[in-house]
Structures are given as C-alpha cells and as structure tokens.
Amino acid sequence: MWKNKFFISAELCTAKILLPQKICAIIALMENAYEKYEKLITEGETGEKFSAFYDLLLKYNAMFNLTRITGEEDCRVKHFFDSLAGEKYFPHGAAVAEIGSGGGFPSVPLMIVRPDLRFTLIESVGKKCSFLREAVKELGLNANVVQARAEDLARQEDFREKFGVCCARAVARLNTLAEYCVPFVKKGGLFVAYKGKAEEELKEAERAFGVLGIKLSSAEKYSLPFGEGERTLVVAEKIKPTPPAYPRGRGKERSSPL
C-alpha cells in the first residue's frame, strides 16, 4: 500500500497569510482537492488499485519506455493527481475516448475513482496496448483498448462523433491535438486537453477550433503540489459537426497544423 502522506506542503499552507484574499480562496479550493484525491490515491479500495497500477507501471516500464517519472511520490503527484485534476469535466456515465493512451494517463486514474465512466483507449503502439489491456484486466476497469491511429479511427462510423468526451495528455500541440480528438466528439460533448502552460498554444489553435467545430469553454490553470509545476486544463465544447475532411491523415496534422 501507499505511504499515507498528505499532498499539502507546510509552505503552501502558511503562505496564505501573505497572499491577497482572492488567491487565498483559490489555494483553499486546491488544498481541498489535494486532500480529497490524496485519500483516494492512498486509502481503501481505490488506494489498493493505485498501488497495483503503480507496480504494473514499473514492471512494464522496465521492458519499454512508458514514463520517465517512476519515483513513488513523483508518480502520485505528477501522474495520478494531475490526471484527477480534470475529473469534474467528465459527466457521469460518459463515453470517453482517450487519444494516445500510452501509460494510461489520465484514463486509468480517472477510471479507478470514477467507475461510471466508459473509456475507449486509443493507442497505436502494440506494446503499450498490451500494458493497457493488462491494467484494465488486473484493475477491473471499464475500458476497451483499440490499437489504431486516431486519424484513421476517427473516420470510421462506429467511432466518429460517438463520444461525450475526448481527452488527451502529453500527445501534441493543441492545434494538432484538436484535429486528432475533436472528430470523436459528438455535438454538445467536450474536448479536454491536459497541458502545461497553454497561452501560446491557445492562440495557435484558434483557427483549428473554428474549423473543427468547437468553442473554448475554459482554460483552467492549476499548480501541482510541492511546487511541481503549473498546468492548464483546456476544455472546449463541440458546437457543430466536424467537416468530413478532418482529420486529414498522412501526418498532415503535425506537418501542416491548422
């Protein structure tokens, strides 16, 4: 089992007396989130699943590269907590597509704490699909793993505009990522992108958002515990169908982004 250690640092808690009231309120909300997810990650049935997932991640990472982050505390903060930070954007019972699932972030942490979500994990690399399938089986998760390139799968009738949410983390710049993800999202659904600092990418992606049929809903900034970095959750709503020409395929999403 995980060691029971709170995510909140003493420096963060005591620094509140020096900060403006509005920032203090934001910090208080984040502290509550840290405490909530710390308990889910370290305690009870969910804690056991996170521990088993961590062990499985290390096992497969020794055979091929899934992540450079392998320390227990680093993994909890930079992978598990970061994945759960976007939980509120996944409606109850939603069908979710994840592009470039790789090591299973954010999908596996989300499924551990939200068994109501129905995930389709889309990954083009066979070895990573093997890891994902074992994780799904061992942890009893509600997911289907599909080995395919997103730009090919998005053209198939069974997948195009069939999901309430499409998410991705650490896959591509936002304009390219949107072209991979948005065709999977049905009208009224959400595109959720886990990013680092996103101001520049948001400006780059304005044209892509318009062409693909989505409208920016929010770009929520948050800080990881222990000063481990700044993150942004980019959320956009699908307001009209994506034109049939997209995704363009043959690498054009990266070589000539919208």
TrEMBL record:
Species per Swiss-Prot/TrEMBL record: Candidatus Borkfalkia avistercoris
EC number annotated for this UniProt entry: 2.1.1.-
Pfam families cross-referenced by the UniProt entry: GidB
InterPro entries recorded: rRNA_ssu_MeTfrase_G, SAM-dependent_MTases_sf
Coiled coil: none
Superkingdom of the organism of origin: Bacteria
Name the record gives this protein: Ribosomal RNA small subunit methyltransferase G
Binding residues annotated for S-adenosyl-L-methionine, in chain numbering: G100, F105, A150, E151, R169
Gene from which the chain derives: rsmG
GO CC annotation terms, alphabetical: cytosol
NCBIfam families: rsmG_gidB
Record keywords: Cytoplasm, Methyltransferase, rRNA processing, S-adenosyl-L-methionine, Transferase
Function: Specifically methylates the N7 position of a guanine in 16S rRNA.
Assigned protein family: Belongs to the methyltransferase superfamily. RNA methyltransferase RsmG family.
Subcellular location: Cytoplasm
GO function term, MF aspect, one: rRNA (guanine-N7-)-methyltransferase activity
